[in-house]
Amino acid sequence: MNKNLFLIGLSLASFFLGLLYFAYSNHYIIINIHRNTGPQKIVPEIKKKIITCWLWQQKQWTTETTEILWSEADKSETLNHIITNWLTILTEEGVYTKKLSIQAISLLPNNCDALISFDRNPFSKESSIFEKFMWTEGLLKTIRENNIGIQSLFFLVNHQPLYDAHLDFSSPWPISGFIETDLKK
Amino acid sequence: MPIIILLVLFIHFSCNAYLVMINPAGDAKNPGRIIDDAFERGITFQCAQQIKKIGELNNPEITIILSRTPGQHLEPFQAAQFANRLSVDLYISLHFFHANIENKTITIYHYMQQSTDYWLRPSSEPTFVPYDYAHVPFLSTTNKIAQKMKQLCELEFSNKGYYVNGPFATRLKPLAGIIEPALLIEFGLEKKDDWQQLVSPLVTIIQKMAHCSYE
Questions:
Q1: Is residue A185 pLDDT above 50, yes or no?
Q2: Chain B residue whose CA is closest to A169
Q3: CA triplet B44, B49, B50: central angle to 5 degrees?
Q4: What is the DSSP string of B33-67?
Q5: Cβ <8 Å between A128 and B186
Q6: Rounded to an integer, what distance in angstroms lies between the CA atom of residue B83 and that of residue B14?
Q7: For chain A, where are the alpha helices, taking DSSP H only?
Q8: How confident is the model at residue A21 (pLDDT cuts 50, 70, 90)?
Q9: Model confidence at B19, in pLDDT bands (50, 70, 90)?
Q10: How far apart are CA A59 and CA B106, in angstroms?
Q11: B175 to chain A, minimum CA–CA distance in Å?
């Protein structure tokens, strides 16, 4: 009697296992097992950050703070935001009245030198050399003080080197500028 | 015999003359900025001519040369080549712009390509040097001259309502390629005839610079 019951139980268990296997192999049942697929893909972090903009006003350096979207991975985008906000502040403060916008920004393969192309010449023909020089120094100081990791800037207008009668923009300007660095022997 | 003595004296004084070259801004093709209804090139040339006339009259030991004549077009680096060939003692590039009464400034500049230029040592052997590093051999001297120029400008021009800026060192096209000490001085003029007030102080400054030692 016991032997018969054992055999019936074994047959039924085998039948259901076989049925389960048949259903799994023919995709009537799908069993999803969670697996660890390796290192997680890093999504570039974009965060809001407060930056300081420097401008030469009334014979001294003044600062204004503003908030921008800062991307650790995309330096050119961050640089774009910094310069756009700097130009906006210059216009708001009345220091600079020309309507100027950035056409394009790109980085050289070394990721340290940037090319900035404006849509027009930032300097007017009647400007003094001092005005032009302090405009350039203000831009360099703003980028330098916000530690974006750029070493030099090429100034372009419509993707051509910026031409000025007094200042030479044919080669990149160092981000350290020319005013505050005093490396005399 | 008197002719020989005169010739020797002439050569002696010529050799010991303090040679200054003044480069008035602009030329035949580049009129420069507008001050009132006049162009910068005309006003700077008039000023430079007057400085030369009065400077040489009162100071026979000073020789002042202008880098161009009226109506002449200067090619790039032509003035620099001229100055280098003559081994001038001082090169001054004179510039004017239109300024409001509260913006009357004098700014002094000299050339620098990078802030590390002071660390460079000129080679003792014949070497090809890029134009933007021609200033290196005399950079320290130029800096001292610029500092002195600022002091003298403050002395001579403060009572005329001018504020003196600088000296700044940066990449300036009018000074590129010049080996000898070279300065760029930019004046803010309210009216086109204001240059006449600058002549006498500038002659005094050049006279004082000629008697200074910068070693």
A1: no
A2: B171
A3: 100
A4: -EETTEEHHHHHHHHHHHHHHHHHHH-TTEEEEES
A5: yes
A6: 16
A7: 2-25, 75-92, 129-145
A8: very high
A9: very high
A10: 13
A11: 9
Residue B168 has its nearest CB partner, among A59, A133, A171, at A133
Whether residue B138 contacts residue B181, with contact meaning beta carbons closer than 8 Å, is answered with: yes
- Best mutation site among B34, B114, B121 for testing chain A: the one with the most A CBs within 10 Å? B114
For residues A184 and B143, the answer to whether their CB atoms sit within 8 Å is: yes
Torsion sign (Cα): B152, B86, B112, B177 = positive
- Residue entry with tokens 């009334």: A58
pLDDT, tens digit, for every residue of B92-134?
999 999 998 877 899 999 999 988 888 888 777 888 888 999 9
- Interacting residues of A130 by C-beta distance below 8 A, sequence separation 6+: B105, B107, B165, B186
- Which positions in chain A touch B112 (Cβ < 8 Å)? 178
A interface toward B at CB cutoff 8 Å? 59, 125-130, 133, 164-168, 171, 173-174, 176-179, 181-185
Average of pLDDT values for B136-162?
92
